[in-house]
Each structure stands twice: as structure tokens, then as C-alpha cells.
UniProtKB/TrEMBL annotation:
Ranges annotated as biased composition (Low complexity): 43-62
Lineage: Bacteria, Bacillati, Actinomycetota, Actinomycetes, Micrococcales
UniProt protein name: Uncharacterized protein
Residue segments, region Disordered: 1-62
Bias kind Pro residues: ranges: 19-33
Species name: Arthrobacter globiformis (strain ATCC 8010 / DSM 20124 / JCM 1332 / NBRC 12137 / NCIMB 8907 / NRRL B-2979 / 168)
Length: 685
């Protein structure tokens, strides 16, 4: 370290002891000491003095002088190679008057490391990958001691270079046969520990174009690669390192060859008119497109390019074979020929099965349907019950009434030059009566109330029937005695489905039986109690929902758990309008009614009214529709209640109201009942 500036005595012939420097008042801004600065003697001292004046014991101790700021003699320098993985150091430069140096390392303007040391002690910065390509600046502040103000200088900035991979070893060979469908691969590069986090990236190329998705060390050759130069590029990279690109040798893609190319065989009878079928066998690898060409001798048969071929008269006595050609993208096309087979004379084979078309019924005409090779001639003979029909030698036959019940068939004799004559006979079919065709189905008309008369509309037919018969059904069961066109509804039909079966008949025709669509009857109200009284539940009245049919507002009923006079026997009760309902539960023992009129069962349908004009209890969604209702009546005794049931208990009152008849009420769809008393007319808004 450079020595601090100090005062030096002037040289003389003999020096006894350095005299202390005169004490001068400290200047406001002391000038920094230069490298050769000296403390000058006081004004009283002359150059000719030979010795400094002695200090007598009576002289006072000089005042302490403030230390001068350190003076930089040489700027600090950054030592070391600025490369990732290396270390930079600095001793802070040379100073006069310094005892402490504060180091600050700055990366692209951002301080990353600060440290303080005594003068002469070096500070170091390790270069990490994130610093690659960035500028490193070092500033130092020299002071007499730590925490004291000092002098700041900077070293020349350096730029960090990426590190280089070393020890990279790789074979650029491409392993594998460059044929379509085959796999190529390249090896994995090796390198030393210069980059422990090195990563490899692969890319295969077809010529100069990168192959999409071919980014691993392996690649399967495709048809597009035939005739193309294939090679791989391997890129070695790591944070803070210069990437290394390695290229493999180039190989040329070639077409593949089929591993298995079997000789085809031919199946089928080797006769004229028979179907010959080529069996190509199993080619490997799969996916080959197979095409066919049939040969007569050595000549290709025009148009015979399917897997099957039907021999003709021209093939008689000739050698027949088939060629199978296999093609596949990226593969060499291969032809294989079957062994030749000699075609013998054949039998006439129908190209379409012999049959009789048409309806075997009175009034219809049936015809022969057939197909034979061209050049074939035909002869027909029709038979009735096994006996040849006189004059029945045409391809068609008409059925008059005499044929009804007879079994009819036809024999066709075919011949053709060079073929054996053959006869084919159809199976015998019984001739039936004519059919009556339904045009419009029967239907039921009429009112659906108890006692109403229903009428069967028989529908329409072709031809028109000469007579009709009827049978009425209730829920699918025949109704005894209901065999006329009309039917009167009885109590037994309540809520049931009614249908009618219509039987249409005509001479020489089968009777046509058709069932009408079902007519679903509503559930009619049936009177179960005819007036006031007390009734036993289970025998005189069953549990269920019932409706009162009386008038007025003096209806009273009770659901009972016993028949004594005590109120304890009353499960629930009601008093009000006779337009009401009661739900009798299975646990009730008795039911008492007074002033309510007769009680009936409850139909499943209702008026679905949108206005309420009378006091009473209504089923929501059936008797009245839900919604907002407006009342414009007078008086203040209007009572309304929303009900969850009709058992007469307080628990079934979801909400209620008593007040002015000038009111708006919302009847929700999920409540079962709505009770109203003294509110006048309510109209749904």
C-alpha cells in the first residue's frame, strides 16, 4: 500500500532531531496532499537556517490538524477474465491517506454486491450465467476509516462474455436404414462439467427445410422423404453459455420394400358363368392398396379389374389367372400372378333368383321375376295344385275367384348355346281372398259425460266394404252386448278408456279388423253421501278427497277419531260456504256433515277459471288458475286463506288475510287450495 503523505525535514550537514512543524490555523478546505507534497516551514524559518529551532519546555502543544481526504494515486482495475463461471477481483487502486475502501459492483446500472475492506485487501465477484452480455462496473470509495466520508473513483467497465462448452464429443453418424417406415436416430453429445445444466434440442431436416414435430433424437422416414437428403441438427445450450450446433451426416430417403408379398390364389368353380374370386393374401407391412387385373391366357381382359370376375363363354377352354398389384406411398410397387386355371363348360346360372312377384290374392296378377345371362331363352308353365294350367304359358297369371284356396307355382326352362338346358320351379303359394285396404282409421265421436251416446265412425276403405260389425271395449276388455255402432256411457265407464273395434267385410275378401284410437273419459263426480249425518270411515265412506254440492254459507263438517260428544273426538272441522272440499284421511274413524248437501268424488279436471264470484274453497290449477287477483268489493270482512291441503287443520293454512275487500292477492301455483269468504268478485289480472 502507498504510504500516507507526511512532513519531511530539510537535509543539513548534521541532523539532531526533526523540529515540529509550526501550528497554523486549519484551512476550511485543506488541499489534498500530492504524492510528493511536503510540509513547508513557517515564515520565520529561512532557507539559510542550518537547524530547526528547539522547542523550549515552556512552549504549548500544537492543536490537532483534521486528516486530509485520501488521494488516489492510481485508479482501481478489474482483474480476471469477464466470462461466465469466472471471478473478477480488485484491490481498489492506490491511495494516499486511505485506511478503508468500500467496493460496489454494478451490473447494467444495478448494484449487486457491496463490501468494505482494509486498504490492500481485494474484493471478488463471482460471474453467474445471468450476467452474460451485461456490463460490470466497479466503484470504490476510499476513506480514512469505515463509515467515514471518502473519495469515490471507478474502474473501467467490462462486458461479460458467455462461457463456452468444452470437451464436446459427438458422433455425427445417422443410425438406421433411411427407408420409408424405418427409424433413424443420432447419438447424444457428451461434454465436460463446464455446463452442468446443459440442454439438448434436436431438429430433423428434409433438405434445407425443418420437418415439423421431428424434434427428438429419433425420426421415422415417411413417403415424403423418398429421394430427399435427411439429417439432424443437435443444439447444445445452457444459461450463460454460447450454444453449440452440431450437424449429422446426410442420408438419402429411399422407398421401402414389402416384407411379405404372397402369390395370390383364385377360388370359385372353374366353369363358364361362375364367379372367380382373387385371394390376395396378407401383405406386410399393412396399408397397401391392392388392384386386380384378370388375364385370359396372356391377354388382359378389358374391364376385368375387380377382385371378382364372372367367366363368360369366351373363357371356355382358356387359362385364367389374376394379377395382384400392391402399391403404397414410399414403397416399391410389386406385381404377383396367380397360378392359371382352365375354365370348363358351365351351367346356366341365374343372375337374379327366380321368384314370383305380386300378391297371391283374388283380383291380382302375379309375374315371374328372374335374371339370366344374355343370350338365354325361356319357356314358362304355370301349375295349380300340381296340375299344369291350360294356356298358362306366359310370364304372368291373373287370379279369378276360382283360384281362391289353390296352390300356384311356375316352372321356367332356360337354354343357351354351349350350356346345359335347365329348369327351375318356384315354390307353390296359396291364393287368398282379396284385401280391404284401410284409408282412414275408425274414430269415436260424442260427448264424454255420464249417459252420453258415443258413435263409431267406421273409417274409409278400398274397395268399399259391404258390411260392418262393431265391438266396444272398456280399458281393453270387451263390453258385453256392446255390438252396435253406438254405445251409451254408464257409471262403469267413469275415468276409463273406451275403444271400438270395426270389422269391415266384402265378398271374396278377408274381413278387415281395425281398432279405433282410445277415448279417455274424465273422472265424473259420483255421489257418495246424500245428506247430513255421521258416517263411518272405511265402510260408509272411504278416505279420499270429496266435494260438497250444497248452497249457502252454513256448511259444517267434522273429521272424527271417535263417536262421542267430546270435542276430543274432533280431529278437524270446518264452517262456511257449502262450496268446499274435505280430505278424509285413513286414520279418521268418522265423518259428520251438516248443511253441506251431498258429497261427491272429485273429478280430475276443473274450470280453470280466472275469476272468483262466489265464496268457497277452490283447487288451485284446477278450479282456478294461479296468479294475481284483484278485488274491488266493499266492507272490511274479506277473508282469504292459502291452503296446503283440505283436511281442515290449522297446519294446512299457509297464509291468510282478514280485512278490506278492496284487495290484491297473489295465488301461487304451488298451493293446493284457496278459501275466500265475503270478498265479492276477484278477477285475475
Amino acid at each position: 500500500m502507498a504510504p500516507a503523505a507526511q512532513a519531511l525535514p530539510m537535509e543539513t550537514g548534521s541532523v539532531t532531531e526533526p523540529a515540529p512543524a509550526p501550528v497554523d490555523p486549519a484551512p476550511a478546505d485543506p488541499a489534498p496532499a500530492g504524492p510528493a507534497a511536503e510540509v513547508q516551514p513557517s515564515a520565520e524559518a529561512t532557507p539559510t537556517e542550518t537547524a530547526p529551532a528547539e522547542v523550549t519546555p515552556e512552549e504549548t502543544v500544537p492543536a490537532e490538524v483534521a486528516p486530509a481526504a485520501p488521494e488516489n494515486i492510481s485508479l482501481p482495475a478489474i482483474e480476471g477474465d469477464p466470462v461466465v463461471g469466472g471471478t473478477l477481483t480488485s484491490t481498489g487502486g492506490q491511495w494516499n491517506g486511505a485506511g478503508w475502501i468500500q467496493y460496489s459492483w454494478i451490473i447494467d446500472g444495478v448494484p449487486v454486491q457491496t463490501a468494505g475492506h482494509g486498504v490492500g485487501e481485494a474484493d471478488a465477484l463471482a460471474i453467474v450465467p445471468s450476467m452474460a452480455g451485461k456490463s460490470i462496473l466497479l466503484t470504490v470509495v476510499a476513506s480514512t476509516e469505515a463509515q467515514a466520508p471518502g473519495t469515490e473513483v471507478s474502474a473501467a467497465a467490462v462486458t461479460v462474455r458467455p462461457a463456452a462448452f468444452t470437451g464436446v464429443v459427438w458422433s455425427n453418424a445417422v443410425t438406421g436404414r433411411p427407408a420409408v417406415g424405418q427409424e433413424l436416430s443420432v447419438g447424444t453429445p457428451q461434454w465436460d462439467t463446464s455446463a452442468s445444466q446443459g440442454a439438448l434440442a434436436y431438429q430433423w431436416f428434409r433438405g434445407s427445410l425443418a420437418i415439423g414435430s421431428a424434434t427428438t433424437s429419433r425420426y421415422t422416414v415417411t413417403a415424403s422423404d423418398v429421394g430427399q437428403k435427411l439429417w439432424a441438427k443437435v443444439t447444445l445450450s445452457a444459461p450463460g453459455f454460447t450454444s453449440v450446433e452440431l450437424s449429422s451426416v446426410q442420408v438419402t430417403g429411399v422407398s421401402a420394400t414389402f416384407v411379405t408379398a404372397p402369390v395370390p390364389t383364385v377360388s370359385g368353380t372353374a366353369r363358364v358363368g361362375q364367379v372367380q374370386t382373387a385371394n390376395a393374401g396378407t401383405w406386410a407391412p399393412g396399408g397397401a392398396a391392392l388392384s386386380y387385373q384378370w388375364y385370359r391366357g396372356t391377354a388382359a381382359i378389358a374391364g376385368a379389374v375387380g377382385r371378382t370376375y364372372t367367366t363368360s363363354a369366351a373363357d371356355y377352354g382358356k387359362a385364367l389367372k389374376v394379377r395382384v398389384r400392391a402399391t403404397k406411398a414410399g414403397f416399391v410397387t410389386v406385381d404377383r400372378f396367380s397360378a392359371a386355371r382352365t375354365i370348363a363348360a358351365g351351367t346356366i346360372v341365374a343372375t337374379k333368383p327366380l321368384s314370383v312377384v305380386g300378391t297371391h290374392r283374388y283380383g291380382n296378377t302375379v309375374k315371374v321375376s328372374q335374371g339370366w345371362p344374355s343370350g338365354t331363352t325361356f319357356r314358362y308353365q304355370w301349375y295349380r295344385n300340381g296340375v299344369a294350367i291350360r294356356g298358362g304359358t306366359g310370364y304372368a297369371l291373373y287370379f279369378n275367384p276360382s283360384y281362391i284356396g289353390s296352390r300356384v307355382n311356375v316352372k321356367v326352362t332356360v337354354s343357351k348355346p354351349g350350356y346345359a338346358t335347365r329348369s327351375v320351379t318356384t315354390g307353390a303359394v296359396t291364393v287368398g281372398r282379396a284385401l280391404i285396404t284401410l284409408k282412414t282409421a275408425p274414430r269415436i265421436t260424442g260427448a264424454t259425460s255420464l249417459g252420453s251416446v258415443l258413435t263409431a265412425n267406421p273409417g274409409t276403405y278400398s274397395p268399399a266394404p259391404s258390411a260392418y260389425a262393431y265391438q266396444w271395449y272398456r280399458n281393453g276388455a270387451a263390453i258385453s252386448g256392446a255390438r252396435y255402432r253406438t254405445y251409451r256411457l254408464t257409471a262403469a265407464d267413469n275415468g276409463r278408456s273406451i275403444t271400438v273395434r270395426v270389422s269391415a267385410s266384402l265378398i271374396y275378401s278377408d274381413t278387415r279388423v281395425t281398432m279405433s284410437p282410445a277415448l279417455k273419459l274424465p273422472v265424473w263426480a259420483v255421489t257418495v253421501l246424500r245428506g247430513d249425518g255421521t258416517y263411518r270411515v272405511g265402510t260408509q265412506i272411504k278416505p279420499g278427497l270429496y266435494k260438497a254440492t250444497g248452497t249457502g254459507s252454513g256448511c259444517y263438517w267434522e273429521r272424527l277419531n271417535g263417536f262421542g260428544s267430546s270435542l276430543d273426538y274432533v280431529n278437524a272441522n270446518y264452517y262456511g260456504s257449502a262450496r268446499t272440499y274435505v280430505q278424509i284421511l285413513p286414520g279418521d274413524v268418522g265423518f259428520r256433515s251438516s248443511g253441506c248437501g251431498a258429497w261427491t268424488t272429485v273429478p280430475s279436471t276443473g274450470a280453470k277459471a280466472t275469476s272468483i264470484t262466489k265464496d268457497g274453497t277452490y283447487r288451485v290449477g284446477i278450479d282456478i288458475l294461479p296468479g294475481d287477483y284483484y278485488g274491488y268489493g266493499s266492507g272490511s270482512s274479506c277473508y282469504m286463506a292459502m291452503l296446503s291441503g283440505f283436511g281442515g287443520t290449522l297446519d294446512e293454512i299457509y297464509d291468510n288475510y282478514l280485512g278490506s275487500a278492496w284487495v290484491i292477492v297473489t295465488i301461487p301455483s304451488w298451493v293446493k287450495g284457496f278459501e275466500v269468504q265475503g270478498c265479492g268478485t276477484l278477477v285475475r289480472g
